[in-house]
Amino acid sequence: MANLLNGVWTEKYRPAKLEDIILSDENRVFFEEAARKQEIPNLMFSGKPGCGKTSLAKIIVNDILDCQYLYINASDESGIDSIRSKVMTFAQTMSIDGKLKVVILDEADGLSNVTGGTTGKSSAQQALRNVMEEYLNNTRFILTCNYPYKVMTALHSRCQSFDLTPTYEGCIKRCVEILKAENIKVENGSKAHLQDLIKSKYPDLRKIINTLQKSVINGELKLNNTLSDNVIAKEILEKLIAKDNVENIREFIINNELAFGNDYHQLLKDLFETMFNIQMEFNKKRNILLCISSAMYQHQTVLDQEINAYACILSISEVLEK
Fold first, then answer.
1. Is residue 43 within a helix (H) or strand (E), and if so which, with residue range?
2. pTM of the model
3. Which single residue of 47, 51, 101, 173 has CA 20 to 30 Å from 15?
4. 168-221 sits in which CATH class?
């Protein structure tokens, strides 16, 4: 039976070797040296979703070191029990072949970092700090995180940190390689749209590739109507400038969540870029851009991203009414 994942470009073209992944020159030199020495320190990979953190972690254990490893999605198993029952059990024994063992803690910023207060209980991150030191002789740790500030300083100090944001040029090259491998026809008119797509989704290479695959019709790349995020941002701002009811605008955004992939950070980014290009009195424009940038910053920590975006809409509305 054919591998069903071959129909999903993000999996079909997921990097399997070090030379496949997009890295800065400095980072590539480090990991090539690690491959030569067959040795790594504890590592922490940071960057936006879709930039290759998990892929590189698996390349290290499967291709570079070819070692025994334990993979844990820390956002699903975020409590201290996972550290005690799984990580400690794995780390405390030597590997059969005498090689290093590696624990991959994917999305480590999801590990609990709140102590039990008067109960004296430790958080998962506190427990991990001790495990990393105790079993350093035979086990290494690779932590990936979208938001490194959520990882306690003591863990940062036990790891060498790497920002894995891919280069913009590397993203373009990868997209062209995939389109050629799939024998996709790209008309001259679509080439400019391709660059616009990469720029709008960068550095989330996974989202770029998913959008590319979605935009292929009968073997030809059709990007003219795929960048609906900007269209939605333009319509939101047009409604705001026309002083439409903000409750109606919220309803419009929610009804169009599928169109922009429920990605409110991208929607805020599109609002910023669209607003930047609008001709408007300077002070109002400046205050609106500051509102949007503040919402983009808060987006990383809020519990409800839609409410955060709506609060931004309310702030813009107030600025426009002055």
1. strand 43-46
2. 0.75
3. 101
4. mainly alpha
